[in-house]
Design goal:
The chain has 115 residues and is an all-alpha fold. The protein contains 5 helices and no strands.
């Protein structure tokens, strides 16, 4: 990411445009839909949370020294950040639906592994 920013400014601008106009707008849309469906808390500021999530993802990609990479993978970092992020959005109903999805998904994975 640093090299993209430093050596390819046009590509960096395309990335920044994509981040704001596609990723952020998609997250805002998902959060607002979750609020309308009663799965996400209504008091959440969708735009702020979308910006926060994008920056969470990017900060650990751009700053290699924040965590020892030999002890924790980037995938694990992102999983933990997402888990923390999504649980902060949930209503009780959303939390229950998410847990039910995880239970069903884990059961399906176990069945697939047996076959």
């Amino acid at each position: 990411m640093h090299e993209l920013h430093r050596f390819y400014p046009d590509a960096w601008m395309m990335f920044e445009d994509f981040k704001v106009n596609v990723m952020k707008e998609s997250l805002i849309s998902v959060i607002r839909r979750g609020q309308q469906e009663g799965h996400f808390r209504p008091e959440i500021n969708a735009e702020l949370m979308a910006s926060l999530r994008i920056e969470q993802v990017q900060i650990f990609m751009m700053n290699k020294d924040l965590l020892p990479r030999d002890q924790i993978s980037l995938g694990e970092v992102q999983y933990q950040l997402f888990d923390h992020f999504i649980h902060g959005l949930f209503t009780l109903e959303g939390y229950q639906l998410f847990n039910q999805y995880n239970i069903n998904n884990n059961q399906n994975e176990k069945l697939t592994q047996k076959n």
